[in-house]
Amino acid sequence: MWREIRQVIYFPNKCIGFYTAIFMIVWLGAWAMNGLQNTHFDLNQLRDSYIWLMTQLNATHAIDSIWNSPKGTSPEAIKIAESQEKENLATANPQNGHKS
User: How far is 30 from 41, CA to CA, in rounded Å?
Assistant: First the structure.
């Protein structure tokens, strides 16, 4: 289960939809509160924060794609393969890396 949560958090193609849904709920709630309760939430600042977050996620993904993975291979596939390799080594070596 933790692996699935990590994939949602760390991989932009999975978390952008989640962040967008959260943003829409918060923005619509703030919009409704501004109209009904006469609060003064700054909707433009909220929108700008969302744009900044999406820019950071996309930039991080682009840098990972360009610099850290071979051409034609997605960074997600490499990260998953590396984590599986580490798990396989840990299970294959019950001594946890201690040499006798």
Answer: 6
Closest C-alpha to 9, from 76, 88, 65: 76
Encoded tokens for 36: 């009904």
Per-residue pLDDT of the chain (100 residues; tens, 9 = 90+): 667 666 666 665 667 777 888 899 999 999 999 999 988 889 999 999 989 888 887 777 666 666 666 666 666 777 787 888 887 777 776 665 555 4
The reply to whether 34 falls in a domain is yes
5, amino acid identity = I
Q: Which domain holds residue 54?
A: 2-92
What's the pTM?
0.52
Give the number of other CB atoms < 10 A from CB of residue 51.
11
